[in-house]
Amino acid sequence: MTPQQPSSGGSSTRFDPWYDHYAHRTAGLSASEVRALFAVASRPEVVSLAGGMPYVSALPTELVTGALERVMLNDGPQALQYGSGQGTPELREQILEVMALEGIRGSVDDVVVTTGSQQALDLVTKLFIDPGDVILAEAPSYVGAIGVFRSYQAEIAHVLMDDDGIIPEVLRETITRLKAEGKTIKFLYTIPTFHNPAGVTLSWERRLEVLEICKAHEILVLEDNPYGLLYFDRQAPNALRSIDDEGVIYLGTFSKTLAPGFRVGWALAPHAIREKLILANESAILSPSSFSQFAISEYLRSTDWKGQIDTFRGVYRGRRDAMLSALKEHLPDLSWTVPNGGFYVWVTLPESLDSKEMLPRAVKELVAYTPGTAFYADGGGRHKMRLSFCYPSEDMIRVGIRRLTSVINGELEL
Ligand code: PMP
């Protein structure tokens, strides 16, 4: 059992007097090792290619204020009240329309509204994981999911990816090996489309194969899809959930197609699971924010929300292009993924470089990124880094890549 760390408040050395009282599961709750550096990296003079913040300034303010005003005028008392633990019927209907854009057909009864998809990740993990159960996840995987899985004392088994996403043969081998070791595998957590952090997308053939493998081994699939509608050239293959509605729990969110401040996401569960999910939601939060749900319903009803998603796509496409061309110009010897949507480029550094060790030097040179190790539960990713192109302008991205180039070249000369 890893002991609790002393308070991580800056340079404080005061030990927590409740040190011996915490539940065992909190051993998995550790502040990101690079959190302190990111506080420095949020200074305006630093070009941050680190965070995954959507560029909400591309959303015209009046679209939101208009919706908020109408909610208060027309539905004020209800919007300010507690609501159903499953979410409002109107928003759940509208969520079906959003998911239909990625080929998903579901029932309004099976949609559960949550406080962002992050909370849905927590609920699903709470429902299925006993300490020591195994969750399969791509290598690398979303840092926020790894944190949730750890907080429930899951064992995380990574499965290798390439440019077409998770590799089915490796998935098969991993399952066989873990079963031979007597492990209980509960689910596969996957981000098939515009992966965070890898930027890649699972091909259609592999989608079918991955589902077949999981079905054969009775492994549930947890499909996390925050970026699917943010494609740049052509739409990605349809969601896993569009192929299999009994073995896939699908997670969606309004965080990237509208704004994360509403904190509204959802799970589309297989019918058999939904009741437990609703109970878990009620026990965690009573009901998702009525106000946010009313506001989003009004926004979807009264604005050209698909046109707004096009606007976001245009902004992110320009930023992706700026990042890729700057990488090509300045760092031609490195390799990186080419995302067709989403927010991230995944860069492979020369083996001799350690991206975590290099970060303080980068921040000193006024550029930040996320070191690869953040996205692995097993210490992998030392010579990888995630670069986000979602937030800084195209010009700032070019400045950032130039600074990063001087840091990398400086390290290689040492
Ligand atoms: N899953 C993935 C893959 C993400 O990138 C994020 C946000 N960075 C989330 C889930 C959580 O998003 P939210 O809670 O805002 O819906």
UniProtKB/TrEMBL annotation:
Q: Which Gene3D superfamilies match?
A: Aspartate Aminotransferase, domain 1, Type I PLP-dependent aspartate aminotransferase-like (Major domain)
Q: Which GO terms describe its molecular function?
A: pyridoxal phosphate binding; transaminase activity
Query: Tell me, which GO biological process terms does this entry list?
Result: alpha-amino acid metabolic process
Q: Does the keyword Cytoplasm apply?
A: no
Keyword annotations: Aminotransferase, Pyridoxal phosphate, Transferase
Is Transferase found in the keyword set? yes
Q: Which cofactor does it need?
A: pyridoxal 5'-phosphate
The organism's superkingdom is given as Bacteria
Record's InterPro entries?
Aminotransferase_I/II_large (IPR004839), Class-I_PLP-dep_aminotransf (IPR050859), PyrdxlP-dep_Trfase (IPR015424), PyrdxlP-dep_Trfase_major (IPR015421), PyrdxlP-dep_Trfase_small (IPR015422)
> Which SUPFAM superfamilies is this protein grouped with?
PLP-dependent transferases
Where the record annotates domain Aminotransferase class I/classII large, the positions are: 66-404
Q: Which family does it belong to?
A: Belongs to the class-I pyridoxal-phosphate-dependent aminotransferase family.
Q: Quote the subunit structure annotation.
A: Homodimer.
Q: Which protein is depicted? A: PLP-dependent aminotransferase family protein
This protein's species is Homoserinimonas hongtaonis
